[in-house]
Sequence to fold (163 residues):
Amino acid sequence: MHCTPSHAVCARRKSRKRAHFWLHTAFVALLLLALVPAFKAHNLKRPVPIPNMYSAHSYLGLTVVMLACLQYLLGAATFLWPKPSPHVRRSLSPVHAFMGTAVYVGGLAAIAVGIQEKATMILFQQKLPPFSAGMRLPAVLQVLVLLTGVSVLLIHSRAAVTG
Fold:
């Protein structure tokens, strides 16, 4: 179907694409802004600062931030400016969708690893027994991260199937 501005379906699609762009603009801005307190929390820790970039959580998180920024920039460049041909945009659309999902899954992994990292620190610093109630909370949070991720992916896949 060739879209003209008068088609209601095309207008809704353009509106969704605009919302997608602005939501992701806010996401990338907040993501980059969140790096400031993350590094400051390490650098300003007393009595001894915590080293930056020392764990799997750090590397996963920074990789996800870089992929999210790359995905955003490539998506904006490809789908907004300078408007490549419809064929090129159609062929890049599945790659863009896959990379968006990969960034989401990577973010979930970084969250789960971060929860585990913090739990391990608490376990060793406070000398808690491994099966204490305080150690169950991180495990429950990690399961909730997984269930949230699966729920979002299920909704996303249903939306993709139904159009």
